[in-house]
Structure formats: structure tokens, C-alpha cells
Design brief:
The chain is an alpha+beta fold. It is built from ten helices and 14 strands. Strand 5 (about 65) and strand 6 form a beta hairpin. Helix 1 runs parallel beside helix 2 (about 115-130). The longest helix is centred in the middle third of the chain and has 20 residues, at about 225-240. The chain is globular and about 65 Å long. The structure holds adenosine-5'-diphosphate and ligand DP6. Adenosine-5'-diphosphate binds near residues 103, 302 and 303.
């Protein structure tokens, strides 16, 4: 039993990064317990983040304000999951206090830049700090909340969020049973300087949420083939990261993204995230690489926006070539990062005005 030491009205703030998956989590073996169909592996980002503050309040009703607007706990709303998650955290911690939560993302929400990952990672950390009064990893571990457990709790809110509890390169192993799942930082961010240029074709919310599309994967004739090849894909990606081989990594991440989208497009019902601009951009990247030596590789999450991955020492030249060929397109420059932070204080006290990237 964890006694809740934090007094009411003391604010705690988490800043959690988004992550970009190199081997995608796509499909769930059991959605109720968030058991994925396959292992996934991601790189934690730096600038695309969620900043979430939490404080205990009197009464029994949680409040959730997202970017200035109070959101409802209504079952049918997309914010319902947030309220459900707070209930889950209280149950884990065996506490009852209501929470007042405010949150903002530094990047566009629900369009394939993994706001659900940073969002539920930040929510898990800020709420846990507010309910326990602790912000330090080792003290949280003493209270029965080691980082690994926080990652599993975050995963229950949104699968990809479990990976955002760590920095660098993170492997989420599906395990042979739901209880043998593991989320592990396989290399810290200092291991390899990689950049992610997020090419933003649309900041609008996607039509099919990732959660709905995960269900549809089982109807795709390509899904069994994807699952059969995941272990060897994971081995190749891990080896490329260990040896810092960008060509080998790039080849794998492009295949994995296309494979995931082939499953999405042929699922029942089908989900098509690739728009016309997205497809033109993918063709441009491959053309520029083969004829112009562009040292960058694409990946795409569940949205129309493309993540262009390159080594950080090539990033300025890659950004210049993108700007010349795609002058109208917004590009968010991001890179590998060390993971989330958690502290006592409001977002304003800790970070000043939070600006969009
Ligand atoms: P994305 O590609 O951005 O991850 P998803 O549809 O998978 O898109 O997830 C978007 C959902 O994530 C939102 O509808 C909301 O439920 C959740 N989310 C996004 N930002 C936050 C946040 N800051 N705090 C809590 N939940 C968030
Ligand atoms: C394409 O983690 O958003 O970004 O667990 O239902 O919330 P839920 O799904 P979510 O799915 C992420 C899918 C992906 C690939 C990835 O991040 O691995």
C-alpha cells in the first residue's frame, strides 16, 4: 500500500517526449490488457513533447484541461481514455484523491506524430507524482513504482506510451504471455546521434484512430506474413543500431513502415493514412537517394506525415534539400533524446511559456 504523502494543490509536472517507431507496434493480441501482436522498437524524440501538470484536489471529480479547454469524461469522447487512465493509476497506487490535470503538446495532435505516446507517458508520470508526492526515479521505485512499472502503466493508456518512459532506443517485447512483456532501453541516446525531420502534410486529426486500426489488422491477408517476419526484422534493426549502420537501419525502417501500411490498407475495415503528398514525398526520397545520394530514410506512423531519419551530422544538408524541393511544407526538426523529466512545480515555473515546435 502506498500512502499518498502529497498535499492537495501541490503541482507536479512531467515533460515526456514522443517517439518514432522503427519497427511498428501494429495489432493487439488482447486489447483489454494491451498485449501487442508483435515486438516493436522506437527512438525517443526530444522536441515533440507533452507537458502535463497534475495536482490533488478535493472531491471525487477529475478535471482534464487540454490546451486551455476542459475536456469531458463522456464515454464516447476521445478524452474518455484519460479519465479511465487516472482511475487505473489510483487503483494501482491504492489511493482515492481526485486530480486536476492540465496538458499541452508542443506539436500537432492525432496525426501520426505519436501524441498518444507522449500524452499518456506524461499523464502517467505527472499523476503518479501528484498522488505519491515523489518525483525522483529511485524514490518512486522504493514506493513500488520503478520505471519499468511506470512504463507498463503508461502502455495501458496507449501502447506506444510505454516506450516514451525511456530515452534513446527502446524495445517493447511482446513476450510469450501478456505478463512476460518487457519494455527496455537497449541503448541510451548518447549511443548514436540520429535526427528525425517530421514532414507535416496535415496537422488535422486522422479519420481512423490507431486504436481502431489495430483491431482491423487481423482482417488483412498480409498480417500473418508480417508477424512471421517480425523477429528477423527486429534482429536486423537491433544489429544496425548496435553497429550504427544507417544504411542497414534505413532499409529496415522503410520496409517496416510500408509493411504496416499495407496491413492497414487491407485490414477490415481498411485504413488509409497515406495521402497523395505523402506518396509523392516517399517517391522523392527514394529517387534522391538513388540518384543524388540523399542520406535519409523514411518511416510513417498512423497519419499522413513522414518522418525522415538521418544521422545528425547529415541533418543540415538533408533539411536544405527538403526545403529546396518542398518549399511549402512545414518541417519539425527533431532528434533522439534522453526521455522524460518529472519535477515539482507548474509548467510555467519549470519551462516558462511552452511554445510549439
Ligand atoms: P497520434 O498519431 O498523435 O498518436 P492517436 O489517434 O494515436 O494519434 O492518439 C491521439 C489521442 O491521444 C488523442 O485523441 C488523445 O486521446 C490522446 N492524447 C493526445 N495528446 C494527449 C495529451 N497531451 N494528454 C493526454 N492524452 C493525449
Ligand atoms: C503506428 O500506441 O497509438 O504509432 O495502444 O491503441 O493507443 P493504442 O495505439 P498506439 O499505436 C501506435 C501505432 C504506431 C506504431 C508505433 O508507435 O509503434
Amino acid at each position: 500500500m502506498i500512502d499518498s504523502m502529497a498535499p492537495e494543490n501541490m503541482t507536479f509536472t512531467a515533460s515526456a517526449p514522443s517517439n518514432i517507431a522503427f519497427v511498428k507496434y501494429w495489432g493487439k493480441r488482447d486489447a483489454a490488457i494491451q498485449w501487442p501482436a508483435n515486438d516493436s522498437l522506437s527512438m525517443t524524440l526530444t522536441r515533440c513533447r507533452t507537458i502535463t501538470s497534475a495536482k490533488k484536489i478535493p472531491g471525487s471529480r477529475d478535471i482534464f484541461r487540454f490546451e486551455g479547454q476542459e475536456l469531458t469524461s463522456d464515454r464516447k469522447s476521445s478524452s474518455h481514455k484519460v479519465f479511465e487512465h487516472l482511475g487505473r493509476l489510483r487503483e494501482e497506487l491504492r489511493v482515492t484523491s481526485a486530480l486536476d490535470i492540465t496538458s499541452q503538446n508542443t506539436f500537432p495532435t492525432a496525426c501520426g506524430i505519436a501524441s498518444s505516446a507522449s500524452g499518456f507517458a506524461a499523464l502517467t508520470l505527472a499523476a503518479t507524482a501528484a498522488l505519491t508526492g515523489e518525483t525522483e526515479w529511485d524514490k518512486l521505485a522504493v514506493l513500488g513504482m520503478p520505471r519499468q512499472r511506470l512504463a507498463h502503466l503508461a502502455r495501458m493508456g496507449s501502447g506506444s506510451a510505454g516506450r516514451s518512459i525511456f530515452g534513446g532506443f527502446v524495445h517493447w517485447a511482446a513476450g510469450d504471455t501478456a505478463n512476460s512483456q518487457e519494455i527496455v532501453e537497449i541503448c541510451p541516446s548518447s549511443h548514436w546521434g540520429l535526427s528525425d525531420l517530421v514532414i507535416v502534410f496535415s496537422g488535422h486529426s486522422k479519420h481512423t484512430s490507431s486504436s481502431d486500426a489495430h483491431k482491423a489488422a487481423w482482417g488483412s491477408p498480409f498480417f500473418p506474413a508480417r508477424l512471421a517476419g517480425i523477429h528477423s526484422r527486429m534482429e536486423r534493426v537491433r544489429a544496425a543500431i548496435k553497429s550504427r549502420n544507417i544504411e542497414a537501419l534505413g532499409e529496415q525502417i522503410e520496409s517496416d513502415a510500408l509493411e504496416m501500411h499495407a496491413v492497414a490498407m487491407t485490414g477490415t475495415p481498411a485504413a488509409n493514412y497515406i495521402q497523395e503528398d505523402t506518396a509523392r514525398f516517399l517517391a522523392w526520397v527514394r529517387q534522391e537517394r538513388s540518384t543524388g545520394g540523399l542520406p535519409a530514410w523514411f518511416t510513417i506512423d498512423a497519419g499522413p506525415n513522414v518522418h525522415l531519419i538521418c544521422e545528425t551530422n547529415a541533418y543540415a544538408s538533408v533539411a536544405k534539400r527538403v526545403a529546396e524541393a518542398w518549399p511549402q511544407v512545414r518541417v519539425i526538426m527533431d532528434q533522439i533524446g534522453p526521455g522524460p523529466t518529472l519535477a515539482r512545480g507548474t509548467a510555467k515555473e519549470l519551462f516558462g511559456e511552452v511554445t510549439n515546435v
